[in-house]
C-alpha cells in the first residue's frame, strides 16, 4: 500500500496525507516549502510524484481560516434528513441522521483527510455494487474500479468528457447493471428529424 510509504511525509514539517484515493494513489498537502521537501524525498525514494495545480492546501490545517466561512454557508443552506445512507469520505461511515451533526461534519471535512479507499470499501462491505459518478469527467469511477478490482461491482460515470454520448453510455451501463431506468423520458416530446448526410 503506497499510503504506508507516505507515512514519512508526516515527518516533513507542513506536510500531511490529504487524500488516500486508491491503492496506489495518495495525495499530500502542505506549505510550499513542505511540498518542495516532500517532492525531493519522494524522488529520492523512487516514488513517482506530481505537483497538482490546486488553489490551496486542501484537507490540511492550512485551510482552517476558510472553515468558518464554509460553515456559515452550510448553515444557511436548507438541509433535510437523507432518504438513504450517504457516506462520508472523511470517516468512511454513513453520515449521521442528525442534520446538525452532518452540517458540522461537512464544515470540518475541509481540514480533514479524504479516506476515499476506506469509504468505497465500506460501501461495498455494506452491499453497494453500483457506484455512479455524477459530475465532470470520470476520475472517481476510475478510482473506484481500482479500489474494487476483482470484486463484483460496476463503476459508472455519467460524464466521461464526451458530452451527450457519455451520458447515454452511462445510462446504458446502468441498465446493464440492472438499475431500473426509463430512458424514454429523454425522448418525450422530441421529434425525429431526418437530416441530409
Q: Which SSEs are present, and which pair or pack?
A:
Layout: H1 2-6, E1 15-22, E2 25-30, H2 32-44, H3 64-76, H4 99-109, H5 116-125, E3 130-133, H6 139-147, E4 154-157, H7 164-176
Helix pairs in contact: 3-4
Give a verbal description of the structure.
The model is unreliable at 1-6 (pLDDT under 50). 22% of the residues are buried. The protein is α+β, with helices and mostly antiparallel strands. α3 runs antiparallel to α4 (99-109). The strands form two sheets. It has a two-stranded antiparallel sheet with strand order 1-2. A two-stranded parallel ribbon has the order 3-4. The protein has helices at 2-6, 32-44, 64-76, 99-109, 116-125, 139-147, 164-176, and strands at 15-22, 25-30, 130-133, 154-157.
Compact overview of the structure:
This protein is an alpha+beta fold and 197 residues long. 38% of the residues lie in helices and 11% in strands.
Strand count, sense and barrel status of the largest sheet are: 2 strands, antiparallel
In angstroms, what is the radius of gyration?
A: 20 Å
- How do the SSEs run, as a string of H and E? HEEHHHHEHEH
Total strands = 4
Strand order in space, largest sheet: 1-2
